[in-house]
Every structure is written in structure tokens, then in C-alpha cells.
Amino acid sequence: MNLKNIQTEVDAGFLYDLLAKQEKDENVANVFRQMSEIENSHALIFMQKNNIDVSLLPGPSNRAKILKFIGSVLGYDYVLGVLLDTEKSIASSVINARKSSNSAASISDTAHVTILKNILNNNQNISGSNLARFEKRHRSVGGNALRAAVLGGNDGLVSNFSLVMGIAGATSGQSEVLLAGVAGLLAGALSMALGEWISVKSSQELYENQMQLEMEELEHNPEGEEKELALIYISKGIPEAQAKSMAKQIMTNIENAHEILVKEELGISKEDLQGSAMEAAITSFLLFSIGAIIPVIPFFFFVGFKAIILSAFLSAIGLFLIGASITLFTGKSIWFSGFRQVLFGLVAAGITFGIGKLIGVAVLG
């Protein structure tokens, strides 16, 4: 296991400890503390097995510190999402290290989420509601704000950069490029916003319809719903007598019963209905626009070859920053991810510039 992999373990331990300190529920905080201990022990064990002086154990990297700052701004569920995104990388490193040292496999070699679930399931102090809350957070953190911001900005920058270069190729960078760039920005941003609005709105309407159907079933066949709820609890490993007692107790309050049935049968909670379709649309519009305006800026002040070069330069900087931001999710090298993004963006823009040049020559003679 090399120092880079050990750094990954150290960072994971640091971030799990951060989550433990921020978690209000003591039982869930205890889970995070145990995860932090597991990651730190992995780092120490692998250093010892690879004859690396444990005094050289690194502290948290700049990436981990940046994630801590982002968590303080966007919420610490985002940090959990990034940790879970690194599961495969960490698991692969552990397995390779075990192979090289001929040591036996362990449950800790599996993905982090599996370890977390095992700890939760084996801890009698963790209630079912806490487990459900944790699993919901696990499912939802992948769609966090920063990921959406990076991808939205990337879509805007790459698409409008390519459009601007295509028109610049056809017109030699004249003022028509500015009109096309602004039009592309508005068209793309509006399309993204409308798509996001429809997505959120349709999901909410689907949930509301399913919840209404569940209420009708509850009102017309409460006995059947009580049996279904008991079966759900039995399937989770709760003894039959206890499951039936729990279901019977829940059914004494129709509103509470409806909320629990919707959650247990349909996997829908109140949080799923709280998102604002308009807020999502506006956010999507702004994120796309921020990326799309970058290649257009030079054409507000210049025309011709100078504007084209400045547009490519600013876009390359934007692409590099986006590639570097992606490393927060992947843990890869900032330079590799940044320059890879620049390369892809410049290739796409170069192709559209060439096509635009050919079309411009054909049309203008």
C-alpha cells in the first residue's frame, strides 16, 4: 500500500471523526467514531506491514480540509456522500495490500457502506428510525449541491464554448459570436431549468398520487393494511408477535399510520415532498449560466482573433477548475483531472471551430 492510499485512509478517518462531532444523535455519532477508528487503524496496520515508520503517518490532506470547509457551508451530509463515493477506491487498496502481504481477507475489506450497516445492525442501541434516517441520507447524498454545481457549470461551459468557437470559425470572430453566445447561454440555461422543474414537479406529483392511494386503502381496508405492516416488520427480523403488536398500535392513529405505511411500503417520506421545483429550476439556470458566460466574456470587449484566443484561454482556466473540483469526489490528482478536462473541452471546441470554418468558407466564398 503506497503513501497515497494511506493518505486516503487518514482522510477518511478525519472526515468520519468530523461527522461524529457534528452528529446530534449519539448512537449515529458512535457509528461514525467507530468508522474513524477503523480507518485510522487501517492506515497504521498497512504502514507497519509495509515497513513504513508509523511516525511518518500523515495528517489530513488539503482535500480533506477543503471538504471540511465545504461541509460547514453546504451541510455535513455532503461529506458523508464523498466518503461513500470513495468506497471502491479504498476497498481496492485494502485488497491489493492483503494480496501482497498474503494476509487473510476481512469484513473490513468490503465497501464502507457495508461496514456501516453492519455496525448499525449489530448495535442494539440503534433504533429502527435512526437506521432508516441514516440509510436515507446514504441514498440522498449522492445528489448533493456541490456535485450539481460542478456538473451544471461544466455543461454550460463546454456546450457554449463549443458553440462560440463554431460561430467564431465561421465568422472569424466578429460580433455575431456575441449574439450567438448569449443566445446559446439563454437557450441552454432555460432548457436546463425547465427540465429540472419538470423532473422535480413530476416526482412530487407521483409521490402525492401514491400517498393518496395509500390513504384510500387505509380508509377502506385498515385490517389489510395492518397485516401488510406487520409482514413488513416480520421481514425485517422482528418477532411475529411483536410485529403484530407494533402494527396494531400504529393503526390506532390514522394520520401516523398513513405516514408510516407510506414510508415502509412506498419508501416516501415528507422530505421527498419538500423540494421546491422553482428553486431547483432557478439553481439549474444559474449554474449553467455561470459556466456558459465564461467563453462569451471576451466578445463583449474584443472581436476577431484576439477575442477567440482570450475566450479559449478563459475557458481553459474554467475547465481546469472544474476538473480540479471533480477530484473532491474521485480523490484523483488535481493536475491529471484538471488537464484532462481542459483537453476534452479544447478538442470539442477545436472540432466545432473547424466545422464552423469550413461552413463559413462555403457560405461566404
Short overview:
This protein has 365 residues and is mostly helical. The protein has helices at 3-22, 26-49, 62-74, 77-85, 87-101, 112-122, 128-140, 145-171, 176-220, 222-235, 240-250, 254-266, 277-293, 304-330, 334-364.
What is the molecular shape?
A: flat
Distance between the termini: 62 Å
Helix fraction bin: over 70%
Count every beta strand, where a strand is a DSSP E run of 2 or more residues. Answer: 0
CA-based gyration radius: 26 Å
Low-confidence stretches: 105-111, 138-144
What fraction of residues sit in β-strands? under 5%
- N-to-C SSE series? HHHHHHHHHHHHHHH
Mean pLDDT: 76
What about the largest sheet?
Answer: none
Number of helices: 15
How many structural domains in the coordinates?
3
Q: Which class of secondary structure composition applies to the elements?
A: mainly alpha
Describe the protein.
The chain has helices spanning 3-22, 26-49, 62-74, 77-85, 87-101, 112-122, 128-140, 145-171, 176-220, 222-235, 240-250, 254-266, 277-293, 304-330, 334-364. Helices cover 79% and strands 0% of the residues. The chain is built from 15 helices and no strands. It is flat, with a radius of gyration of 26 Å. It folds into three domains: 3-141, Ferritin (Up-down Bundle); 145-200 and 277-364, no CATH class; 204-273, no CATH class. It is mainly α and 365 residues long. The model is unreliable at 105-111 and 138-144 (pLDDT under 50).
Features:
365 residues, mainly alpha, Ferritin, 15 helices
